[in-house]
């Protein structure tokens, strides 16, 4: 049973109240704003907001320069940047894709393994053009191209590179082009680019991938691939050397959910138990984990969080390289694969070895292999090029056996002073970031001691929250006299999306040598209350018409906020707190596809979903 209290009740805007069941309630004071400037409109480069704006982007995207994506698209990094800025781009299948709303920033993260090699396989007159692999990748037959693709993936998984595809001159040429494209498309104040690549280690088909993001103009002469080493420790050495040479660079891990328990394991790549040196190296080099993308969510899973009613969201579990046999999912083991469990285990390590190896921020991404992010459920056209370029190919007779199961991907949100590489990268490094399932919900989260109960009602509350505490990603100082921390949280809906259902604060802590967690509903739309006997709130309702793939904002709230004090705080126990914001139910992309075809949605995926956002944690270490 959850015992909890809210120091300041949830706030709902006057407009939102009119659309809820509590329309007879008196009008509340004006709802708090989570920012001081509109953030879908880019700010001039010279404009700096000390209270920070929300910017949305993708730190995980593939073009045809990735060996696997080349099977599905011939898009280039130039295409990807233009697409992110709002332009329409073409792809295989005689189809164009275009975002309804441009992004604020983008990192193109093509796989470092064989990067650009497929272009040489296709370049007439080149040394690789007439090879059997070259002919296979150029085939008009999809199955032939798929076989060639799987052979390339096998090279990476078994760490047996083909000499002709890892020629240093070829890799260096592609890497130089990459860097030049990022520089060409960077528009400070309007659109930010990052030089980046993906390190694609996958021992025994278990995902250990990291995206490497550079925040500087200076980058090494070559990327580092899993063909150089499959061990994360060796990637960290590459990053550390790059920083010594003047680069500013971090890594972001993703898809712990399909890592086979390796992503947050109890031992390092050499089988040795984690120690303080390992923990410090990992958190220095890996600043965040990608909480959701097309291959599923990595927050938690019903098998490790049976009491979390929202744990099953986009819970993909298929392993890499097993897409042709989904029965292998039966071997799925969630232990050491999910972020919340890692956060909890990190607290145990903090006490055991004096350092936390799993102290990460939270971001989100797409992992689209079509040259463009596809985060919009009602604008989803597939992430695998001509393999899923129509509703029929996605949900009726999918060429890929898992096409219907993929998600639409997520977006990374950052709170930064301005839309520049320096400002956004600094936000990523200090973990003032949040991930969303693709929507542009804007959460703010602060922790401190002594916040006023009406803080979020004050016109300058964000300034006061910064000055009196720490934002998401921050570290709370030791509690004065055992005082419980107070948290100020607020969220506004996606301007073009659904209303909000609730705000939750998820706490993890250590007691008697065991890690525990609890979910607190701190702000609810309407007049709902948490049942003290169950610790849960009633569902918000569901307005979705599945047949037409429509919904209404007659329920929920445009804005929610609260000031909440931890009722179970123990100043001697290390803890973390992060926020999860849920929207009201809306149609999943596959339901939009079904409506277009005039058929019922598939029964093996959810017809409706509750889109959401997750903030980076605030940490307390006694």
Which whole number gives the mean pLDDT? 89
Report, as a whole number of angstroms, the end-to-end distance. 26 Å
Globally, the shape reads globular
Helix content: 10-25%
What is the overall number of helices? 13
Task: Count every beta strand, where a strand is a DSSP E run of 2 or more residues.
Answer: 26
Major beta-sheet overview: 11 strands, mixed
Query: Whole-number radius of gyration?
Result: 24 Å
Oligomer: single chain
Uncertain residue ranges: 1-31, 36-44
* Proportion of residues in β-strands: 15-25%
Please identify the structural class as seen in this structure: alpha+beta
Please describe what this structure looks like.
Helix content is 21%, strand content 20%. The longest helix has 18 residues, at 168-185. The chain contains 13 helices and 26 strands. With 622 residues, the chain is an alpha+beta fold. Helix 2 runs parallel beside helix 6 (168-185).
